[in-house]
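Annotators were shown the component list below and the corresponding predicted structure, then asked to write short factual statements about the assembly.
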Amino acid sequence: MSKDNQILEEFTSREYEHGWSVDLEADEAPAGLNEGIIRWISSKKEEPEWLLEWRLKAFRNWLTMIEPEWANVHYPKIDLQSLKYYSAPKQKNKPKNLDEIDPELLQIYERLGISLNEQKRLQGIAVDAVLDSVSVGTTFKVTLSKLGIIFCSFSEAVKEHPELVKKYLGSVVPINDNYYAALNSAVFSDGSFCYIPSGVRCPMELSTYFRINAANTGQFERTLIIAEEGSYVSYLEGCTAPQRDENQLHAAVVEIYAAKNAEVKYSTVQNWFPGDKEGKGGIFNFVTKRGICAGDYSKISWTQVETGSAVTWKYPSCILKGDHSVGEFYSVAVTNNYQQADTGTKMIHIGKNTRSRIVSKGISAGHSQNSYRGQVQVMKRATNSRNFSQCDSLLMGGKCGAHTFPYIDIQNSTAQVEHEATTSKIGEDQLFYCNQRGISTEDAVALIVNGYAKEVLNQLPMEFAVEAQKLLALTLEGSVG
Amino acid sequence: MLIIKNLHASIEGTPILRGINLEVKAGEVHAIMGPNGSGKSTLASVLAGREEFEVTEGEVLFKGKNLLELAPEERAREGVFLAFQYPVEIPGVSTTNFLRTAVNQVRDYRGLEPLDAVKFLSVMKEKMKLVEIDQKLMSRSLNEGFSGGEKKRNEIFQMAMLEPTLSILDETDSGLDIDALRIVSNGVNQLKSAETATIVVTHYQRLLDYIVPDFVHVLFNGRIVKSGTKDLALELEEKGYDWIKEEVNATSV
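Structure shown to annotators:
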């Protein structure tokens, strides 16, 4: 065995930082999945009849579907009947504002470094905090509402803005889109809702922080972002979960609608519990994210830093329907120990002069498997559309794998599609060079990895780019001897 | 400062160094010369702590400490600097960022306060003049797309920033044109002091016109077979290495 491998062999992953959980009295649905449970969730949330019908339709569709097996991931079959589909922390009275939120819940978020106290919050970021199945609080609602921006939990949106929810829910990801999206449509419990009116540039970052606390519970959240003509919003999503021996399922759906000249930036820093060093436990992260550039000159940009989860199955995509619309996907996916990730994007060019850009950086260490799967589709009337894809893989050690599955489907001869791919290893030469300048091996790995991921990290809002850099270093800490 | 006693080292079981003895004192410049494959670069690598070489015998003392027991980064922090023959590229990491990490880790080890961004940049500006390095290179990825000359200048610039007590230049002259050679040597000469020492590893005498050595050693088959003053280098330039080989072979028979 070469020295290179030997160094990388000495793999000890650092303990997951957010692995703790809190005993909360919870209002839970009984385990199991059937129409009764769906009615139970819907009535618990005091939903209108149309939404219950929508859920049931999704459920009936789901019953006819089979679990997808095409992804390059392997995991034991999930017993969906053993899961609980709703778990909400009991709050004595429904809080009317942030001051009334149960201090115990606030503490959970404080401990995660997320303050729901508006005075303490950094200026410029509004947060919706989702714990297990429900949103526990949203900050800066008043400030935002002055501009006509709606930023609230999904449940609240159903009550306060049913016309918007009804119009857009399922318009980008239809209920029968795929197995997990259908399941989500049937049982989703909460999530964030965001509406930016015409011509408004949202003055602060909007963010949702997802936390799974309860055991044996699936989290099925639903996010809907609507950007009206000429508006702009930058949205961030963060996630953590306690360390448990069992796998937990997280099957979310995110839908984005961008009207003419609108721009939506959606950034994710995903740090779900990845399982332990032997690959035990961890979150199954089966997520459907899609945006539609419905209007001309609209733009949707996905940026993701994926460091957590035992298994990830996720393809944030753009439907470029409006002429001159732009879709972007920037991704850093890190896998360590026994993590598996199959992630990428779909860029569907429908409008004329549409452009898309894909930059994917995979980093594999330990025994992990990291796959990029991307589809670029140019439809018949998408004249002069252009795509540029770059897929880079970085390997650390000799026991991990990196895979690339690009699919290209061009139906218009004026299209220009470029695909570049590279695979590299962190070399002993690079590490030695850093060491010789006095830099410790651990810091050298962080430096090299951050350099490699720079193009993607640069897309994140400043403050989060710093966080993401630290997270990358942390995920790979101990990955070299 | 540096005492090497009977140093043996091998790579994958093949012995390369077969008993090196050398003492380097503060203020001195030593040149290590020798034909290709004699073990010159291996000696430089072993001193810097490259792990693919296995030290099988002997000891190395640096400022009284057992150098061979220290990890490469500890050796660097103690003051050993190696100017690489082939500097590596690190994409996405700017030279500035790289050096700031290095300088502050070294300072921390030496019990000094870290340099803040402003201080760091002003020190950098000052040292950049030494090797006439272009400011533009500082914001580019480390060594990526640098010309051969730029890489070597960058090595000496890093040396200036890290302020080592022992600098080892591994074939720093290879791939340099005459102007770059003059600039690089000039930088090295300005960094010399009564407290520091330099080991220059080179195949050719030409570098030694600029960096004048106090001692010249000829390495052959993993041993120092001849030592002398700078006149020895001139003699080698004139006569080549063959006569040394013959001499060695004659005595070993």
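Statements collected:
1. Chain B has nine helices and twelve strands.
2. The interface with chain A takes residues 48-52, 71-73, 75-77, 81-82, 84, 87-88, 90-93, 97-99, 101-103, 105-106, 109, 141, 158, 162 of chain B (CB under 8 Å).
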